[in-house]
Structures are given as structure tokens and as C-alpha cells.
Amino acid sequence: MSHSDSSAPVFQHSAYAGIQDKVVVVTGGGSGIGLALAKGFARNGAHLLLIDINAQAMADAKGELQQEFPESRVECFEASVTDEDAIDAAFAHAKACFGRIDVLLNNAGVSINKPSLDITPAEWRRAVEINFSSVFICAQAAARHMIEQQAGVIINTSSMWGVSHSAERTAYCSTKAAVVSMTKCLAVEWARHGIRVNAIGPGYTRTPLVDELQRAGRLDVDALSKRTPLHRLGEPGEMAELALFLASGSATFITGQIYVSDGGWTANGF
Ligand SMILES: NC(=O)c1ccc[n+]([C@@H]2O[C@H](COP(=O)([O-])OP(=O)(O)OC[C@H]3O[C@@H](n4cnc5c(N)ncnc54)[C@H](O)[C@@H]3O)[C@@H](O)[C@H]2O)c1
């Protein structure tokens, strides 16, 4: 198998207990891992509210979801995850449409890959606001509803870079590491309300974000595949399988953890 062999076997969808008819909010649901999360939960019978800043991407995602999973109800709400008022309105909309909120997939995020001395104050604030503060804003908005229900699941999308470190990724690594810390704090605080909070840590995953970095010459996909022990990038659907497991009836004793799915990247010291 070559390092970037696209015919390499990837994954099979599984059926997860306890997802049928759940109401799931997905931030950044219009594209990439967020869209794959939406598809994975819809495949298992959930109903969805997508939140995204890109209305067209979300409309396209809704079309795909309705075609593939006609049994699932899909609602869209255009908002930036950094806007507290818009996020409160999005969760109120979910409650009005579905009557409850069972799962938050706190997934929206942006990449920033730049020498630390060149990062402008605006770029730094954007990374902190979108990758870190928004995760808290959405978790808080979801938990207000989940506490009324005394049940809920929150899954934050960190990154393998939330548990490892690299040159020219200071803003990305440190915001994603902060998400891990936030995940653990919220898990401890909200356990008494029946809310489990975990994080997933994708490794390099084939999404529009990665494609864009590759096109801009900021990522060498062949080199990344070569350094990954499993010799390929992850598929968005593989991240969805992990989130499904964590939201399912098989993970009811798991909270406050980060699960990294990276083909062995972070284990590899070489
Ligand atoms: N792709 C990877 O290799 C990889 C690896 C590790 C972690 N991640 C993380 O996974 C998450 C999804 O990444 P992706 O690769 O699917 O990215 P993507 O760019 O393909 O999709 C991100 C989605 O989030 C939306 N979004 C961006 N800013 C937003 C905002 N302020 N408010 C609402 N929506 C917003 C975008 O419109 C887009 O639809 C991010 O948190 C990213 O950091 C990705």
C-alpha cells in the first residue's frame, strides 16, 4: 500500500444503541467533520439542528441529509458560534422545534498555522473566540436545557493538537488544549445533572479545511500520511463513529475524557 493509497480500507458504519429519536445540535454542521457527524447521527435515527455561519453550506448539507435519511428531521440555524445571543436563539429554536435537546456536538472550529511572531492580535482573538470561547458559549446554552431534563451529552471537537505540540501552531494547539481542560471541568461540574461531557481529538482528516490548506501549500498530505503509523489521513466518518460511541448507551460511564483518533500520530515519537 502506498502512503496515500485512497483505496485503503477505511471503516464500516455501526449501529449505536440509544441514538434513535435523540435531538442533536451540531455546530459547524455544514461541512467536513460536522456534516459527517450529522450524517452519522441521522443514520442512527436522530433529529438534527445544524448551526453554521455558512448558510449555503448548511442548505446543501440539509439537502444531502434529507435525501439520504428521509426519516430524520433537519433544521438549520445560521449563526456564528461566537455570538452569545444568536446561540441562545438557536437553542431556543431547537427546543421549540423538537421539545428537547439531548446531544450537543460542539464542532465548529478554524485552523491557524503561522509562525508565532507573525500572528496578528486579530488572528489570535479569532482563534480564541472560535476554537475556545464558542465551545463554552454553546455548552452553556445547551446545558441550560439539559439541566431542566437532568440528562444530556456534550461532545467537544478538540484535536490531536490539543494533546500534542508543534511549531507554528501555537494558537491552534493552545485553544484545542484549552478545550480539553474545559471538557474535564464541565464534566465534573455537570455530572450531578446527568450530563456527560467528552472531547474527540481528530488527527489529520480529509475535509474541506484540510483540502484548502493543501491547496495553499500549507500542508503536505503525502508527508503527513507517511508520518502516520496507519499511513493515511482520517475520514470524517471515522470521527463520527467515535462521537456516536461516546453519545451512545455503550458509554454511559464515560465522562471528562478526550479520545484521540489519529492513526497513531500522537503515539509516534519518530
Ligand atoms: N480536518 C482536520 O484534519 C481536523 C483535525 C483535528 C480537528 N479538527 C477540528 O474539527 C472541527 C471541524 O473541522 P473541519 O475540518 O470539518 O472544518 P471545515 O472547515 O471543513 O468545517 C468547519 C465548519 O464550521 C463552520 N464555521 C466556521 N466558523 C464558524 C463560526 N464562527 N460559527 C459557526 N460555524 C462556523 C464552517 O462554515 C464550516 O461549515 C474543527 O473544530 C477543527 O478544528 C479538524
From TrEMBL:
The protein's matches in PROSITE patterns, at most eight in alphabetical order, are given as: ADH_SHORT
Q: Does the keyword GTP-binding apply?
A: no
Output the CDD domains linked to this UniProt entry.
Answer: SDR_c (cd05233)
Molecular function in Gene Ontology: glucose 1-dehydrogenase [NAD(P)+] activity
Q: Which residues form the Ketoreductase domain?
A: 22-203
Question: Pfam families given for it?
Answer: adh_short_C2
UniProt entry keywords in alphabetical sequence: Oxidoreductase
Q: What class of enzyme is it?
A: oxidoreductase
**Which InterPro entries does its entry note?**
KR_dom, NAD(P)-bd_dom_sf, Sc_DH/Rdtase_CS, SDR_fam
Name this polypeptide is given = Glucose 1-dehydrogenase
Which organism is the protein's source?
Pseudomonas helleri
Q: What is the lineage of its organism?
A: Bacteria, Pseudomonadati, Pseudomonadota, Gammaproteobacteria, Pseudomonadales
